[in-house]
């Protein structure tokens, strides 16, 4: 019974069905990826010593049965069809036939890749879309579309398409605008997944769309968000940094403490960074504004402790000198108002010796 099943299986393998190990047919290369209109070639070899003849069946440029060979080439000068299934066959001496089909994928790169988008400028937080249109590509079932922002892939889309002839496809990317995306480049890149990763398409650079530069509108935000408390040294320059980011770029308005307002009103300050020899403490206010909004920052400036200590030392020294002078006056000034370094040993009007 076992031998009967073995013989039956061998008979099926060699009566026109796809080749099995017993048919010993090999095609090189084992599969073909070819551009529409290009040429390709393959070779069919039989390792059986019972080969009577070989041939190729094809809808285009088939090869008739050739007697007495164990290897037979097949060549297409220009691929004219989108579906091709050339088949190598071998006839054995006992009248059996084995066959093997060569997988052929016919492709066409897109005629064009373009972007269409709903808006050229978007508000922060607003949803928007960009559409990638790929014209006349085949086979679309092997097509994938990569969406890139900078060097980062943000979306990958594939297609369930049965047609082998060229079709046009579209991929839509939906995003929510964020200020970090302002100025970013976004584009789509179609790819036919037909070749091993290390091989890639036989020639030519990758097909990609024109890059879209994204513009996101958002209100001003300070680079350093917190209000600042600073200490000044009288007469020395101090810098107040009010730089803010925003699109459109913000303008700036400064307000000064009341006792410096009249002095400052004489010259308008519109720069984000203020460098001055601050003389008086107080609260200095900066507002960054645009047609998207405004934000205010406060700089609370106080006198540095070192300045107050120096002044105190000077006052203390003055007081100490005054006290010393008072003590010296009390000790060295005589009752008659004269000054003497020997107050106890000198009496006015007393002779100092014999006459």
From TrEMBL:
PROSITE patterns, per database record: IG_LIKE
GO CC annotation, single: membrane
Domain Ig-like intervals: 110-188, 220-302
Subcellular location per the Swiss-Prot or TrEMBL entry: Membrane
Keyword Transferase: no
GO process terms (BP): cell-cell adhesion
Classification via SUPFAM superfamilies: Immunoglobulin (SSF48726)
Molecular function (Gene Ontology), one example: integrin binding
Chain segments annotated as transmembrane: 311-334
Assigned protein family: Belongs to the immunoglobulin superfamily. ICAM family.
Protein name per its UniProtKB record: Intercellular adhesion molecule 1-like
Gene: LOC102195746
């Amino acid at each position: 019974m076992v031998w009967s099943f073995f013989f039956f299986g061998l008979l099926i393998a060699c009566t026109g069905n796809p080749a099995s190990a017993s048919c010993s047919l090999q095609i090189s290369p084992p599969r073909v990826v070819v551009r529409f209109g290009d040429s390709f070639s393959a070779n069919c070899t039989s390792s059986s010593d019972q080969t009577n003849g070989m041939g190729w069946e094809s809808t285009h440029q088939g090869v008739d049965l050739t007697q007495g060979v164990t290897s037979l080439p097949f060549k297409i000068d220009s691929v004219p069809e989108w579906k091709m299934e050339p088949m190598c066959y071998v006839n054995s001496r006992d009248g059996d036939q084995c066959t093997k089909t060569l997988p052929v994928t016919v492709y066409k790169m897109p005629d064009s890749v373009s972007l269409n988008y709903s808006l050229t400028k978007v508000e922060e937080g607003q949803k928007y879309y960009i559409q990638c249109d790929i014209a006349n590509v085949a086979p679309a079932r092997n097509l994938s579309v990569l969406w890139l922002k900078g060097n980062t892939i943000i979306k990958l889309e594939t297609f369930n398409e049965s047609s082998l002839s060229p079709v046009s496809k579209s991929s839509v990317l939906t995003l929510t605008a964020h200020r970090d995306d302002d100025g970013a480049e976004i584009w789509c890149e179609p790819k036919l997944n037909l070749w091993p990763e290390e091989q890639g398409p036989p020639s030519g650079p990758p097909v990609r769309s024109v890059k879209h530069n994204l513009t996101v509108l958002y209100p001003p935000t300070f680079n350093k968000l917190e209000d600042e408390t600073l200490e000044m040294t009288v007469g020395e320059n101090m810098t107040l940094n009010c730089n803010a980011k925003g699109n459109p770029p913000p303008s700036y308005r400064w307000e000064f403490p009341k006792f410096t307002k009249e002095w400052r009103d004489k010259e308008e300050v519109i720069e984000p960074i203020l460098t001055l020899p601050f003389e008086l403490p107080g609260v200095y206010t900066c507002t960054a504004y645009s047609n998207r909004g405004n934000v205010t920052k406060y700089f609370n400036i106080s006198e540095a402790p070192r300045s107050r200590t120096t002044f105190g030392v000077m006052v203390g020294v003055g007081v100490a000198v005054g006290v010393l002078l008072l003590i010296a006056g009390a000790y060295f000034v005589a009752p008659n108002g004269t000054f003497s370094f020997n107050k106890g040993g000198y009496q006015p009007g007393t002779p100092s010796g014999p006459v």
